[in-house]
C-alpha cells in the first residue's frame, strides 16, 4: 500500500472506505488486483465532494465507472479508486430540440434504450456500448458512424481550485476515441453530460437500434472482455489486421484473442492482467512485423505496470 493519510481518510469518510478492495469484481473483464482504498460515489454531488476532499488532502485518486475499456494490473492500484455510481437521468422532451442530462455514472447504453422508448433519436448507435456516460465523454465513444462528439451539448467538469464548470465541444477537444480529458487524469472529473436528441417515430428508432444490436451480437464475442482493444488505424480495422496475421484464437494463460472478432480479448475465467498484456504485446509486435502497422491501444492501462512500454 502506498503511503496514505489513513487516519485523516477515516476521520473524513469513516465506514465508506473499503480497504485493499479487489477491483476484478468491478471490471467488465473480471480482471484486476486490489486498490489501496475504494469509495463509492452515489451522485454527482457526492462525487464532487469526494474529489474535492481528496484534492485538498493531496491524495491521488482515480475515478472508475462501469469498468469497461480498462485493464487493471494484477498488482492493483495505489491510492484511492472512486467507483462512480452517480446514475440520475433527466430527459427534456419539450420543444423541437430535446435533450437528456445524465450523471456520469449512468449506463450509456441504458440511456440510449430509454431514449428509444420515448421516441427520441440520436443515440441508436450507442445501445450496445458498455460503460458509463463519463467514460464515453472521456474516450469519445462511438459506433456505427456516431460518436459522443456529434451529440454532446455540454459536459460538467470538475477541477481542483477551479470547481464545477460547463465545457463545450471546443474545450473538450474531441478526436477519434479521445478527448483532452485523457491527458488530465487525476486533475479533471466528469460530473454529468447533456446530449442532444431529436424527435422521431418510436418504431423506426427501435428498428434502427435493433439492427445495430443484432450486428453487434453477430460480430462481437459474448463473455468477459475489456471491449475493443486497439484503435482502428486510418482506413483500416485493428481486428482485420490481427486476423490477417493468424492470431485469432491465440491463448496465453486464461486470455484469448477472440475467434469471432480479433480486436476483442476474452477472459475464459482464469485470466490475469499479465496474460492479457502479453497478448497485447504479441498482437502489436506481430502486426508491426508482418504488416508494418503500429497498433495503438484504445483501452486504458490502469494501476501499476512496471516496465510497460506500450503506445497508449
Characterization of the model:
- This protein has about 300 residues and is α+β, with helices and mostly antiparallel strands.
- The chain folds into three domains: about 5-85, Uridine Diphospho-n-acetylenolpyruvylglucosamine Reductase, domain 2 (2-Layer Sandwich); about 90-220, 2-Layer Sandwich (Uridine Diphospho-n-acetylenolpyruvylglucosamine Reductase, domain 3); about 220-300, UDP-N-acetylenolpyruvoylglucosamine reductase, C-terminal domain (Uridine Diphospho-n-acetylenolpyruvylglucosamine Reductase, domain 1).
- Helix content is about 30%, strand content about 25%.
- It has eight helices and 19 strands.
- The chain has helices at about 5-15, 45-55, 110-115, 135-140, 170, 200-220, 240-245, 275-290; strands at about 20, 35-40, 60-65, 70, 75-85, 90, 100-105, 120, 140-145, 145, 150-160, 165, 190-195, 200, 225, 250, 255, 265, 300.
- The strands form six sheets. The chain has a five-stranded antiparallel sheet. Strands 1-2-5-3 form a four-stranded mixed sheet.
- A hairpin with a 2-residue loop joins strand 16 and strand 17.
- The protein starts with 5 loop residues before the first helix and ends in a 10-residue tail after the last strand.
Amino acid at each position: 500500500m502506498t503511503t496514505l493519510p489513513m487516519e485523516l481518510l477515516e476521520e473524513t469518510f469513516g465506514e465508506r472506505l473499503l480497504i485493499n478492495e479487489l477491483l476484478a469484481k468491478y471490471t467488465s473483464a473480471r480482471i484486476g488486483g486490489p486498490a489501496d482504498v475504494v469509495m463509492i460515489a452515489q451522485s454527482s454531488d457526492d462525487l464532487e465532494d469526494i474529489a474535492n476532499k481528496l484534492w485538498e488532502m493531496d491524495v491521488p485518486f482515480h475515478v472508475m465507472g462501469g469498468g469497461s475499456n480498462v485493464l487493471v494490473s494484477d498488482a492493483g492500484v495505489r491510492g484511492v479508486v472512486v467507483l462512480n455510481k452517480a446514475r440520475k437521468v433527466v430527459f427534456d422532451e419539450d420543444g423541437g430540440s430535446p435533450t437528456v442530462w445524465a450523471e456520469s455514472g449512468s449506463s450509456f447504453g441504458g440511456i440510449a434504450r430509454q431514449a428509444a422508448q420515448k421516441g427520441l433519436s440520436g443515440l441508436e448507435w450507442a445501445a450496445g456500448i458498455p460503460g458509463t456516460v463519463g467514460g464515453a465523454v472521456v474516450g469519445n465513444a462511438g459506433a456505427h458512424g456516431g460518436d459522443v462528439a456529434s451529440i454532446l451539448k455540454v459536459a460538467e467538469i470538475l477541477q481542483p481550485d477551479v470547481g464545477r464548470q460547463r465545457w463545450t465541444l471546443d474545450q473538450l477537444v474531441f478526436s477519434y476515441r479521445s478527448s483532452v480529458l485523457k491527458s488530465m487524469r487525476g486533475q479533471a472529473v466528469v460530473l454529468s453530460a447533456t446530449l442532444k436528441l431529436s424527435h422521431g417515430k418510436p418504431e423506426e428508432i427501435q428498428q434502427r437500434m435493433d439492427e445495430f444490436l443484432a450486428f453487434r451480437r453477430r460480430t462481437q464475442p459474448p463473455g468477459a472482455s475489456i471491449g475493443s482493444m486497439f484503435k482502428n488505424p486510418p482506413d483500416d480495422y485493428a481486428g482485420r489486421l490481427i486476423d490477417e496475421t493468424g492470431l485469432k484464437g491465440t491463448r496465453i494463460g486464461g486470455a484469448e484473442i477472440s475467434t469471432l472478432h480479433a480486436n476483442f480479448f476474452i477472459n475464459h475465467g482464469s485470466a490475469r492482467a499479465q496474460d492479457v498484456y502479453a497478448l497485447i504485446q504479441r498482437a502489436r509486435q506481430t502486426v508491426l512485423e508482418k504488416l508494418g502497422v503500429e497498433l495503438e491501444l484504445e483501452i486504458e492501462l490502469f494501476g501499476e505496470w512496471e516496465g510497460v512500454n506500450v503506445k497508449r
